[in-house]
Amino acid sequence: MRYFDSIIKFLQGIADWLWVKAYTFSRITMGYLIGAQAFSPFVSPGDVSAAQRIPPHHLRIDSKDTLSQALDRHFPLRTWRIWGKKGMLVQLQKINPSLNDVNRVYPGMVIDIGEIGKEPPVAAPAQIQAVAAPAPIARPDRYGEFSVQPNFAFAVLDSMDNTSGGQATLLSKLNAGMTFSWRQHWNDYFQTAIILGTSRQSYEYQDDLITLDTASRNLSEFGVRVQGAPLDSTRLVIDSSVRFRQELFIRASGLNALTLDAIRIPEVSAGVQYLMVELWPFSISVNGHATAFLPARSTIYSLETGMGYDFGGELGMAVSRTLRLNGGFYFSSRTQNSSIAEQMEQDLGFTFGLVYRLTGPAQQGKEDTLQ
Fold this sequence. Notes:
Layout: H1 2-38, E1 58-60, H2 67-74, H3 88-95, E2 110-112, H4 125-130, E3 143-161, E4 167-172, E5 175-187, E6 190-205, E7 211-212, E8 216-228, E9 236-254, E10 257-279, E11 282-293, E12 296-297, E13 302-318, E14 323-338, E15 341-358
Parallel strand pairs: 7-10
Antiparallel strand pairs: 1-2, 3-4, 3-5, 3-15, 4-6, 5-6, 6-8, 8-9, 9-10, 10-11, 11-13, 12-13, 13-14, 14-15
């Protein structure tokens, strides 16, 4: 009897399994047939009875569709999310109590989509052909920035004459300058900039027996700058530039007289910039560069190659979606030989300024993030 009961239970289990499979197959087949007949895309405009079978604010599941695919296809211009704790799939389960599993739907099934049914769905094929192609829209990650940056610095000029070995040291007053730049942000990993700058530097000699013929000079610079993020993270940026900058060189103009010559020197620099802290609206970054000064020639003497470096930090604060304030400090040092003397210059300065972002059409109305 025990074996007989076991056989009976086994046969009952097989019968139950076959019944479930047959019922499921019939539901899927009938749903597909009803859906194909009632909701066929080839229904003529005059036959409105089939279209009226779908109540307003409802969505039909097509063949080989998942619920997320049906929502994605029917609402391509949606502003809400499909997945997630606050996604539409969770909302649809609340609207449709019979929808126990959003991953188990069958063709022809009609889902109540509630308020999102008021949004315009995708147009019919005939309407798509009649609509003209839209005008190109600016990419959200492409924009331009214009910056104005005043800077102030104290400097020391040390020069040693190649012939006599005489040495002179000049201390500057508070030198002031202004730098303008246009930065083109192509994407989060590549930016270029054009730089124009001007400054006025004044020095004085500590020995009363030596006179300084030209104590002040107006200097200028221009160049291009390229920034790129080599990694997926935008915190580390490779910063390089090519500039033509006027630098001051000490020259003996008499037995007890010195003068300052302004010579334009081409220079190439490369370095890194690292974003340490980004807590909106504030950001803190540090930077460092190595610079190579190329040979140059003036009417009086020629300059050889030179080397230099600089490092500093910067604090940024976003005032609005398009305006940001910057402030920072820097230290720089350079050494360059000429046919007359060997000279070293060291600067300690600070900067502050503002950056105005020109927002493209695709970005208007969206919140900005701190760069």
